[in-house]
Amino acid sequence: MDNFYLTTTNGNISTASTGTFRQPNGGYTGILAGGAGNIYFNHAFTLLNTTNIYLAAAGGSINAATDLTINASALNLTGNLIGSGAGTFTYAPGRSFHTLSVGTGGSSDVTISDALVTQIKAGWDNYVFGRTDGAIVSNYTTAWDDPVKFLTNTAFRNWVATVADDSFTAIAGSSIELRNASATITANGAGDAIVLSADDGTFSNLPGPSGLSAPNGRWLVYSYWTPYDARYGLLPDASEYGKTYPLNAPNTIGAGNRFVYMVGWAPDLTVTPNAVSVTYGDAISLNGYAYTITGYSAYDEAQDIVTGTLVGSTTYTQGSNVGTYNINRSSGTLSSLIASKLGYTFTYANSANAITVGKDVDGNTRRCGE
Asked: What are the residue ranges spanned by the domains of the chain?
């Protein structure tokens, strides 16, 4: 395993064209400008290494005119990193199995320090962190000035209250996780201000109803299916089913805040008549009859508000003999907050033994002559 170093004793190092420098055998890569020398990436440039990259201009600075992409297990800087204020800064771990923290915090394999994040935000107007085949990516940075995107094949985790002045995007393979009650995401950009995607996985929103906020635009969350998510009270304007982020980009999704699910159908809410006991000879009305709704995802039932009526029938009539009787619910006009926001449908169930008729005070159990 060989290391590669490009050095000057007292002079500048600059790129002559757009290009990529790849260290193929796992050794270190060093670009070291000695004395008062500077490093100039005058064109879009990519540095790839599975281990460490060293950029040093102790008496000068490290300058990038536009896009700069770095894949490394560690980025070691001596001297200020200065961007032109335009282009995209991209950083990914050099190995796909290395975890990444953006901002100081946690215990990932690779950490981009708060100080380096500050330089990146000052120097570029777009930021991308992680890799599409990569391990867990965690965000510990509370403020982003320009569009920021996180990429991972496993989990994206947000650990802090984060405010993006523009857009906030996270594309994950297994899960999008807002990891604690304070880990809200706010994006002040217009249009698709927040886009979170875990097409094959889950969405976990521990901050609760205020977990996502896009006051000047909207938020979109792509995941596998609503029963597997932990929304904790976060509700969209509407939901869509049978769609994924790769095949159904945000500009193809209906207006407003939305959950978008890979599974092609919404869950059913099953309405079942409650059991009731009556005394022989009593009349019974099915108007306003109590019922139970099942099929809710976690925490949805407590949040739901159901209105409307049911249409049903029974073989029981006043004076029917002691015994059990059915209630069949053929239809209804029920609607609910959860159903309207998440696209749930109502299914009306029957109960063969919903009504139990008991003896009256005189012990009568049936009509005379029966």
From this structure: 1-84, 93-265, 268-358
